[in-house]
């Protein structure tokens, strides 16, 4: 009996030690004669002799003020015990063993700043011959977030060390507008996180950085996720290996080889420089509930779509995330977000996808960069802005902004704006593949387009249509046999279900069109349709983008 128990205990102990992930105490000379200690995690795939794509990407993790050390090896244990941090997850066997990253978690004495951080990044090639120095990702929390901001604001060359940066509740505001130069010149992808009511480090720090960087036109657009929370801890929601916010997949899209030419090129002649804005804290952040709390009805999407291949378009190699930027038209006067894929689709022309927002994203009537940021709150633009777009999609996406004050309640200006978009992009888009989608009033705007523009469409998608059938408009859909998809949740809090039902009935019974109208009417889900309908991670059967690409006009 005892023997059996001892035997079982031995097995369990053995299994546990086999599965244990190892953090090793290490040191390097961060300055001549001056040692800095760090924890090292090597993935099972690491080999010092690896070459090419077999080399391991690297995460440098910077701890918070609570893990400040004295410069001694014995203080490293603080890093292992800091809940919700990357070393903590590794130490507790909660790390994804398939994750390919080398993780290096150095410990500072005093504050985290650029001089403390850069030497490790610069020595990685020497310390780890099997590391891929084009894929060094820098992240940190609180004081460590300050270390991230400080490390990427000094010079372009120092910023270029990193493939991407994720500062979380970073305890450092920008000091001067010159702080934005190095990251903008480098084109470093940044995704910052903060809690909305952080009592320790104000959310204004993150808001100011992101507004400043995007105001200076950083490309790709700097991303920001603000959780609705009154605690300081925004990191547990981000670093958790099973978190729905998968920064690890997001990291792996990027290397530090980023020719800016492919990012900042403007091919349109009607754009003007964004209006200069004073850096007021943006009120249009992407506010989401932390994914690990049990908040009901989270409208955040739960997966970061990793690059997957699409069968509809041939590309060479794995496509990278495209460019996402604000643009402005003077005549007619409107602003828009433009997403351009990282590749030119086969055939040389992009299919065009136009998104018309709902009242949640309408401007106050002014055409400004700040107003345009309102588009990022939901729907299709939110997915792109959050790095959750599928980079293999071939669409040139244009998301213009309307308002609710200048007689545009139903997107009456959709006609002139779409006409302008088609003209501006005529040389690079495939005129047989012009797709349009809209939600709420944006869906109404689609139905009110003229015959000329309806005739140019290959397919149309209306979410939460906000106007009842009117044969004047409906008949245009009939005469063109426009492929249509209507989408709503039956318990939508703002839109009468009868509008969609009457449209669908008109196009299926009164005047049947071919192909048959597609109608999605989910029993529940409330307002979530504005995100669910647009999620690039939806399986093929319910995937909007796959559906679009089956049609030409
Ligand atoms: C673990 O990492 C691998 C490799 O990056 C990834 O494919 C997998 O989805 C990850 N698992 C989870 C649960 O995130
Ligand atoms: C960090 O610890 C060092 C010594 O252990 C101390 O001198 C320093 O004031 C601490 N710094 C912070 C920011 O806590
Ligand atoms: C609209 O908002 C902008 C900031 O985006 C502000 O400068 C402007 O004064 C506002 N205009 C009106 C008409 O409220």
TrEMBL record:
Keywords: Signal. Residues 1-20 form the signal peptide. It comes from Tieghemostelium lacteum (Slime mold). This is Phospholipase/carboxylesterase/thioesterase domain-containing protein. Residues 266-318 are annotated as: Disordered. InterPro entries: AB_hydrolase_fold (IPR029058), Plant_Biomass_Hydrol_Est (IPR050955). PANTHER family: BLL1128 PROTEIN, UNNAMED PRODUCT-RELATED.
């Amino acid at each position: 009996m005892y023997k059996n128990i001892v035997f079982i205990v031995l097995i369990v102990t053995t299994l546990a030690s086999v599965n244990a992930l190892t953090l090793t105490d290490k040191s390097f000379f961060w300055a001549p004669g001056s040692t800095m200690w760090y924890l090292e995690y090597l993935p099972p795939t690491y080999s010092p002799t690896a070459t090419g794509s077999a080399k391991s990407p690297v995460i440098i993790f910077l701890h918070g003020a609570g893990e400040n050390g004295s410069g001694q090896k014995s203080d490293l244990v603080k890093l292992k015990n800091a809940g919700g941090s990357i070393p903590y997850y590794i130490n507790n066997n909660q790390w994804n063993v398939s994750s390919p990253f080398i993780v290096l978690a150095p410990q500072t004495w005093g504050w985290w700043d650029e001089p403390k951080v850069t030497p490790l990044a610069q020595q990685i090639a020497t310390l780890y011959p099997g590391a891929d120095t084009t894929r060094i990702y820098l992240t940190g929390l609180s004081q460590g977030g300050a270390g991230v901001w400080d490390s990427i604001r000094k010079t372009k060359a120092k910023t270029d060390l990193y493939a991407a940066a994720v500062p979380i509740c970073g305890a450092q505001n920008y000091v001067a507008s010159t702080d934005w130069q190095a990251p903008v010149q480098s084109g470093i992808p940044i995704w910052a996180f903060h809690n909305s009511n952080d009592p320790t480090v104000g959310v204004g720090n993150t808001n100011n950085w992101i507004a400043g960087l995007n105001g200076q036109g950083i490309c790709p657009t700097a991303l920001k996720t603000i959780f609705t929370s009154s605690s300081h801890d925004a990191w547990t929601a981000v670093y958790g290996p099973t978190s729905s916010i998968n920064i690890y997949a997001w990291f792996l899209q990027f290397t530090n080889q980023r020719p800016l030419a492919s990012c900042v090129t403007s091919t349109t002649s009607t754009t003007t420089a964004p209006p200069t804005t004073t850096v007021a804290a943006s009120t249009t952040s992407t506010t989401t509930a932390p994914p690990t709390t049990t908040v009901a009805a989270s409208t955040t999407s739960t997966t970061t779509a990793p690059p997957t291949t699409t069968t509809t378009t041939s590309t060479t190699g794995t496509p990278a995330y495209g460019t996402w930027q604000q643009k402005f038209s003077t005549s007619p006067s409107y602003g828009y977000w433009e997403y351009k894929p990282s590749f030119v689709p086969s055939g040389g022309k992009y299919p065009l996808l136009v998104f018309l927002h709902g009242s949640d994203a309408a401007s106050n009537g002014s055409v400004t960069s700040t107003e345009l940021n309102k588009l990022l709150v939901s729907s299709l633009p939110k997915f792109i802005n959050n790095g959750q777009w599928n980079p293999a999609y071939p669409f040139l996406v244009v998301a213009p902004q309307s308002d609710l004050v200048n007689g545009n309640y139903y997107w009456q200006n959709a006609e002139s704006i779409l006409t302008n978009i088609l003209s501006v992009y005529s040389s690079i888009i495939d005129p047989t593949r012009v797709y349009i989608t809209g939600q709420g009033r944006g869906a109404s705007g689609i139905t009110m387009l003229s015959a000329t523009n309806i005739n140019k469409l290959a397919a149309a998608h209306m979410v939460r249509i906000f106007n009842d059938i009117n044969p004047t408009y409906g008949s245009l859909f009939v005469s063109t046999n426009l492929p249509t998809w209507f989408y709503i949740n039956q318990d939508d809090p703002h839109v009468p279900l009868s509008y969609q039902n009457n449209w669908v009935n008109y196009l299926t019974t009164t005047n049947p069109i071919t192909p048959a109208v597609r109608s999605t009417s989910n029993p529940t889900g409330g307002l979530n349709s504005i995100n669910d309908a647009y999620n690039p991670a939806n399986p093929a059967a319910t995937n909007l983008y796959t559906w679009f690409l089956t049609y030409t006009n």
